[in-house]
Design brief:
Helices cover 32% and strands 20% of the residues. The chain is built from seven helices and twelve strands. It has helices at 2-25, 51-64, 79-92, 147-161, 254-265, 268-273, 276-285, and strands spanning 28-34, 68-73, 98-104, 106-111, 121-126, 145-146, 166-172, 218-220, 230-234, 245-247, 250-252, 295-298. The chain is globular and about 45 Å long.
Length: 301
């Protein structure tokens, strides 16, 4: 009987140690991509913005929250490096991990190839080495990172980290391009850079944003029992401009700065639990301009 109690004690202790070991292996990981100096890349047609400023403030705050961080900034934020970083993140993440992915840069509408977009245009993130214009035989779009590709990466990560993991994605760019600025849409700061273009990437198709096709600020993403929850925050709707905001003489993406402000006083878990507060903060930091709205896509009902 004494031996049985001893064995039982060892068995229970083993379970506790195993549980602690599993918990210890769950990590918080972040991949932060930010581009400012587009014009320094050879033959670039893109204007400079301030995506690298977003990464500077977010890296510091995320490190204070215990995240291990990889960054791609300016010249290192090429299409090949971004794709490799996603592959590496997918391979190294483990069950129960918390993952944060951040993209700050230009966005551009990209002609839909597989027919899954109602308006005929995919959304794309623009790495530093992606051209604005289609030129047959010279540049045909292979360095643009489309929403379809991002979605595939996100799903791989969600499957890898499982039900008890968490994936937060922040995209501070114009995801489907922007409208030419109308007088009554102009922000208080006329010099504020805009992250994106109304020019669609296509061989012969012209992009025309249609406001009526996107009226919601909340979308439900697919999920299954093997996937982690996901929240994707986007700085604006498809037809809206993503205009940077100036704080103490420095420009930031409005969504990035709002997230930074929320994280200064809250834990990462608290921000996730009240994600709408990020959008409310973004509205407050946009001076005299309330037409740009955060878009939330999530599997959490």
């Amino acid at each position: 009987m004494q031996l049985s109690k001893f064995c039982l004690h060892i068995f229970v202790l083993g379970i506790i140690l195993m549980s602690n070991s599993l918990f210890a292996f769950s990590e918080s990981r972040a991949l932060l991509v930010g581009i400012s100096q587009y014009s320094k890349y050879k033959n670039s047609q893109w204007n400079d913005i301030n995506g690298a400023n977003d990464i500077r403030i977010l890296k510091t705050i995320m490190q204070s929250k215990g995240f291990s961080i990889d960054t791609l900034v300016n010249a290192t934020a090429t299409a090949a490096n971004i794709r490799q970083a996603f592959e590496t993140l997918t391979m190294t993440c483990k069950p129960n991990d918390t993952i944060y992915i951040h993209l700050s840069g230009h966005g551009q509408p990209y002609e839909d190839i597989n027919g899954d977009e109602q308006d005929g245009w995919d959304e794309s993130f623009v790495p530093i080495d992606a051209s604005m214009y289609y030129r047959k035989g010279i540049y045909e779009g292979d360095k643009h990172i489309l929403d379809d590709e991002l979605n595939a990466f996100f799903n791989k990560i969600r499957e890898k980290i499982g039900q008890k993991g968490m994936l937060l994605v922040v995209i501070d760019a114009c995801h489907s391009g922007t409208m030419s600025r109308e007088e009554n849409d102009a922000p208080f700061d006329d010099d504020a850079p805009v992250r994106g273009t109304y020019i669609g990437f296509s061989e012969d198709k012209i992009f025309r944003p249609i406001r009526e096709q996107e009226t919601s600020y909340h979308y439900v993403l697919q999920s299954n029992k093997n996937m982690s929850p996901i929240i994707v925050l986007e700085a604006c709707q498809a037809w809206q401009q993503n205009t940077e905001v100036q704080i103490d003489g420095i420009y930031y993406g409005p969504l990035s700065y709002a997230l930074y402000k929320e994280l200064k006083n809250k834990s990462f878990k608290q921000v996730i639990q009240n994600i709408n507060a990020v959008g409310e903060t973004m509205q407050r930091v946009l001076p005299n301009w309330r037409k740009q709205h955060i878009v939330v896509e999530t599997s959490i009902k």
